[in-house]
Amino acid sequence: EDEIQRIRVKDLRDFFIKTGDTYTVSDRLKQHVGFSTYDLLDTRYSCPQESIFGNFDLVVCSNMLFYYKPNHQQYIVRKLIDSMDRFGYLVTGEAERHIVENFNELYQVAPPSPIYKKRRGVR
């Protein structure tokens, strides 16, 4: 609930639906989000083919990295960072926090939430 307090009231009203004590993302917002499957270990492509260039504003990687060996974790996070827009955000699960924190290209936006943003000057 602390994170909800950081969202502007107008954005809460426009993009979320409150049911009891929980919030869900509105269909209006979901229509502007693209979802795709992608093999993160694929060396041929740096991002999903549907996206062409990457430059994602938001990348979500939750409860997945801990299934991989450390060298693969590093490779995947590097690919995620490289696929992000220069002002992009990376949201992870709690389990990924210790992995992502080792990358100097990112900083934590709202501790203790695992939300990271690219540092200024990182492409």
Which features characterize this protein?
123 residues, alpha+beta, 24% helix
List the helices and strands and how they pair.
Blueprint lengths: L8 H7 E4 L2 E4 L1 H4 L25 E6 L8 H14 E9 L4 H4 L5 E3 L6 E4 L5
Parallel strand pairs: 3-4
Antiparallel strand pairs: 1-2, 4-6, 5-6
Return the CATH class of the largest domain.
Alpha Beta
Task: State the oligomer.
Answer: single chain
CATH topology of the largest domain: the name is: Rossmann fold
Figure out the total of helices: 4
Query: What is the name of the CATH superfamily of the largest domain?
Result: Vaccinia Virus protein VP39
- Fraction of residues in helix: 10-25%
Mean pLDDT: 89
Number of strands: 6
Low-pLDDT stretches: none
Question: How would you describe this protein?
Answer:
By secondary structure, the protein is an alpha+beta fold. It has two domains: 1-33, no CATH class; 34-118, Rossmann fold. Helix content is 24%, strand content 24%. The protein contains four helices and six strands; from the N terminus they run αββαβαβαββ. The strands form two sheets. It has a four-stranded mixed beta sheet with strand order 3-4-6-5. Helix 3 links the parallel strand 3 and strand 4. The radius of gyration is 15 Å and the shape is globular. The mean pLDDT is 89.
